[in-house]
Specification:
The chain is α+β, with helices and mostly antiparallel strands. It folds into two domains: about 220 residues, no CATH class; about 110 residues, no CATH class. Helices cover about 45% and strands about 15% of the residues. It has twelve helices and ten strands. Strands 1, 2, 5, 6, 7, 8, 9 and 10 form an eight-stranded mixed β-sheet that branches. Strands 3-4 form a two-stranded antiparallel ribbon. A hairpin with a 2-residue loop joins β3 and β4. The longest helix has 20 residues. The radius of gyration is 21 Å and the shape is globular. The N and C termini lie far apart (about 50 Å).
Length: about 325
C-alpha cells in the first residue's frame, strides 16, 4: 500500500507484517509506519539530490552516532549553494521518478501525486534555508485520504462513492503524510571534504532495507559544535528542541573526538554570526541546562524518547552531559 516506497521489500509493507514488526521491535505501529516513509525519503534525497548535500542534525546523530537512538523525523542537509534558486526541484523529482519512487493516485478525476518533493511554503521563509516536503501514503499516520482531498479544496461529495468502494476493496482508507527536510545554504567548507557513510534504519534489527541511505555526513565534532550553539539559544524558542539537543550531546560526547575539529567549527559558527562569543555561549548553555534538568517528565513521555527513556534517568543523564560539556570546553 506504500505506493511510492522503494527502499523496503513489498512483503513487509502489508498491514499485518507492519503489526508484527512493531511487536518484535516493541514500538508503536505509528513509529514503524513513519520510519518506512522517512527512511525511503532519506534514501531518495541522498541518491537524487541535484547538488552535493551533507547530512547533519538529529537524524544523523540518532542513526549513526547514538548508542540509544531517539526518533528524529526531519532531514537536515547542508550544501555549498550560494542561494536557494540553485537547487533544482525539477531535476530532483525527475531522478526519483526515473527510479520508480513516485506514484499517481487517481480518485475519479482528482489526482494525488505521491513521492515528489515540493516547497514547504509554510516553513520556507528563511533566506539561507530551503524547506521541502514529500507526500507519502501510509495506513494510519498523517491524515486520511478524504480529509487530504478536502483540504485541497476538492468537492468531496463527488468522491464519496469512490471512497466507499476503495474502503470496501482495501478494508480501510489510506492516509497521507509529509516527510519534511531542509537544505541549509552557504556552507563555506567544501561538502566533498566530508566522509560518505551508510545511514541505518531503526527497523534493521528485524528488517533490513533493500535500498540503503548513503551520503556525505557531518563529523561528530561538527555536530557537537552545532548542538552546543543551539543549546545556548533562549529556551522560549523551543523547549522540545533543547531537550533533543541535550540528549544528542550526551550521545555524541561519549565518542572518541578530535578536539581541534570541534574548536574549528565553534570558531566558524561565531564568524558566520550563528553563535555568540564562545565564553558567553557556554555561560548560556550552563543556564539552560540548569532549567532543562527539571523537565524529566517530558523526557519520559515524549514520543522522540521512547527508547532512551527506557534506559536513562533524566537528572543523572543531564548531570553527566553537563560535566562532559565542561570538559570539552576546557580541552578546546
Amino acid at each position: 500500500m506504500y505506493w511510492a516506497v522503494k527502499s523496503w521489500r513489498k512483503k513487509i509493507l502489508r498491514l499485518e507484517e507492519i503489526d508484527q514488526l512493531a511487536v518484535k521491535l516493541k514500538l508503536p505501529r505509528s513509529v514503524v509506519e513513519r520510519e518506512i516513509i522517512f527512511y525511503d525519503t532519506l534514501t531518495q534525497i541522498l541518491r537524487c539530490s541535484p547538488v552535493p548535500v551533507c547530512l547533519k542534525g538529529g537524524t544523523l546523530i540518532s542513526r549513526l552516532y547514538s548508542e540509544i537512538p531517539r526518533f528524529s523525523w526531519d532531514i537536515d542537509l547542508v550544501s555549498n549553494l550560494s542561494s536557494k534558486k540553485g537547487y533544482s526541484l525539477d531535476k530532483l523529482n525527475k531522478c526519483i521518478e526515473q527510479l520508480g519512487g513516485t506514484y499517481e493516485l487517481v480518485c475519479n478525476e482528482v489526482k494525488v501525486n505521491l513521492g515528489f518533493f515540493e516547497i514547504d511554503a509554510e516553513k520556507n521563509v528563511f533566506i539561507d534555508l530551503l524547506s521541502l516536503r514529500r507526500l507519502m501514503s501510509t495506513y494510519s499516520v498523517g491524515v486520511s485520504l478524504p480529509r487530504y482531498v478536502l483540504r485541497r479544496g476538492e468537492e468531496i461529495d463527488k468522491l464519496t462513492m469512490y471512497f466507499l468502494r476503495m474502503k470496501k476493496e482495501l478494508g480501510f482508507l489510506p492516509s497521507l503524510d509529509y516527510v519534511r527536510l531542509t537544505v541549509s545554504i552557504n556552507e563555506k567548507e567544501p561538502i566533498e571534504s566530508f566522509k560518505s557513510k551508510v545511514i541505518p534504519s531503526i527497523l534493521e534489527k528485524i528488517e533490513k532495507p533493500v535500498l540503503k541511505a548513503k551520503g556525505l555526513v557531518f563529523p561528530p565534532e561538527y555536530c557537537i559544535a552545532e548542538k552546543i550553539s543551539r543549546l545556548g539559544k533562549p529556551l522560549e524558542l523551543s523547549l522540545r528542541d533543547h531537550l533533543c539537543d541535550l540528549y544528542d550531546l550526551g550521545q555524541l560526547l561519549k565518542l572518541k573526538l578530535d578536539i581541534s575539529l570541534f574548536k574549528k567549527r565553534i570558531d566558524y559558527l561565531y564568524r558566520a554570526r550563528r553563535a555568540v562569543l564562545p565564553r558567553k555561549l557556554f555561560e548560556q548553555v550552563e543556564r539552560n541546562i540548569s532549567v532543562l534538568t527539571k523537565y524529566g517528565k517530558l523526557f519520559e513521555t515524549r514520543r522522540e524518547f521512547i527508547l532512551p527513556s527506557r534506559k536513562y534517568e533524566w537528572k543523572e543523564y543531564v548531570g553527566r552531559v553537563r560535566e562532559e560539556i565542561r570538559e570539552i570546553i576546557k580541552l578546546s
